[in-house]
Amino acid sequence: MMSARFAVSTLLMLGLAACRSAGAGSDVRAESSAAMPMSDAPTAVGAHAHIGVNPGNVGMGTPLVVAPGHELAAFAGGCFWGVEDVFRQVPGVVATAVGFTGGTTKNPSYEDVCTHTTAHAEAVLIEFDPSKITYSQLLTVFFKNHDPTTMNRQGPDVGDQYRSDVFTFSDAQATQARAAIAAEEKDRGKKVVTRVDALGTFYKAEDYHQQYDEKTGTHSCPLPKGLPKGA
């Protein structure tokens, strides 16, 4: 039993290293992650394990149903492991899941998206309590924790699946997203390439991608940048 757990942990860490260092035109995460049976993937652990993992009762393209009093948001900003980890540390976020959206292929697998032919982005679906965190504040966290000035690229991860994109659920969210982009351009003094798209079908990614940084104990940063004062 101990050796099996060690093997799973090793595969997870190899996948994590690949996510942080994959070069242009390649994505070795697919090879290392695909080798791990989904049934062996560990469940979410760590300081943020109390946060839910099924925002909007998300499934493989199923309609999203948010809990009363809650709202949904969706962001893409590079490797979805790190983006999810950031938002799971934000007070007021009650559930997160990673998946694929914004593309043309139905029921895409991770390997499909890695071919860069499906037009999907690696995205994080977020359920939040607007009485504790506003959508505008979530946008601030999003922009402060990735580079929105690089087209289809975050660090060494290159391709349209790593694009900066705000997927909106309403006209009001779209208006706020565009205002945030304008403010970010002014603050940075350079063009922001972040897209604003109405959310279409959201496909939850394979189990081994969910809450990946918690499973491995490797966090992208100690605390997210841009948290509301007093959070």
Write structural notes for this entry.
- This protein is of the alpha+beta class and 231 residues long.
- It has a single domain, classed as Peptide methionine sulphoxide reductase MsrA (Peptide Methionine Sulfoxide Reductase, Chain A, 2-Layer Sandwich), CATH 3.30.1060.
- Helices cover 31% and strands 17% of the residues.
- The protein has seven helices and eight strands.
- Helix 5 runs parallel beside helix 6.
- Mean pLDDT is 83; it is low at 1-43.
CATH top level class name: Alpha Beta
Structural class: alpha+beta
Helical content, roughly? Answer: 25-40%
Write the CATH architecture name: 2-Layer Sandwich
- CATH topological fold name: Peptide Methionine Sulfoxide Reductase, Chain A
Summarize the structure.
By secondary structure, the chain is an alpha+beta fold. 31% of the residues lie in helices and 17% in strands.
What structural keywords apply?
two-stranded antiparallel ribbon, 8 strands, 7 helices, single chain, six-stranded mixed beta sheet, 231 residues, alpha+beta
Question: How would you summarize the topology of this molecule?
Answer:
Blueprint: H1 2-21, H2 29-34, E1 71-77, H3 80-87, E2 93-101, H4 110-114, E3 121-128, H5 135-144, E4 153-154, E5 157-158, E6 164-168, H6 171-188, E7 195-198, E8 203-204, H7 212-216
Parallel strand pairs: 6-7
Antiparallel strand pairs: 1-3, 1-6, 2-3, 2-8, 4-5
Helix pairs in contact: 5-6
